[in-house]
Amino acid sequence: MDAENLLAKVTDNLSVRRAFGTAYEKDGMLIIPVAIVAGGGGGGTSRTRRGNVAAGPDSPPEEGAAAQDATPRDSGRADAGGGSGGLVLPSGIYVVRGDQVRWVPAVDVTIAVLASLSLVRMLARTWTRQRRHRGS
Q1: Which regions of the chain does DSSP assign to beta strands (E)?
Q2: Based on the domain organization, do 74 and 97 belong to the same domain?
Q3: If you count Cβ atoms within 10 Å of the first and of the last residue's Cβ in the chain, which end, N or C, has fewer?
Q4: How far apart are CA 7 and CA 88, in angstroms?
């Protein structure tokens, strides 16, 4: 797969359509979805040399230099790899009716519950530590 096709696939996956779909009109209102989109990726290549196996990283410099002169740099196998990832979170929608625009936020109940539980856990730890410290 070439880089252009890979980037096209990543672009498709990291878009508003991935979380909501495209903007649409219903009952005289225009619905415009909004999402938070983040992504990243990387890649690299390496070439393995054929020739003197003894001329590795632990060999003396003369041996390594001689092996490099004896073997052309382009000979050998090229390895390549890469990857990418992304996150698309729904943020809300804009509802346009006539001249009025209204924001309707998207609330993810799971994230709200997990954040609340984390806060309760943190407060309980703090309270327990303060109680131990005062008791000694």
Answers
A1: 24-26, 29-47, 78-97, 100-105
A2: yes
A3: C
A4: 17
Burial group, residue 25, by CB count within 10 angstroms (0-12, 13-18, 19+):
exposed
Whole-model pTM: value is: 0.47
Total number of domains in the chain: 2
pLDDT in tens, 89-114: 888 889 999 999 999 998 878 888 99
**Quick one: which of 42, 43, 67 has its CA closest to 54?**
67
**Are 75 and 122 members of one domain?**
no
Regarding whether 136 and 87 lie in a shared domain, the answer is: no
Domain carrying residue 113: 108-136
Amino acid identity at 75: S
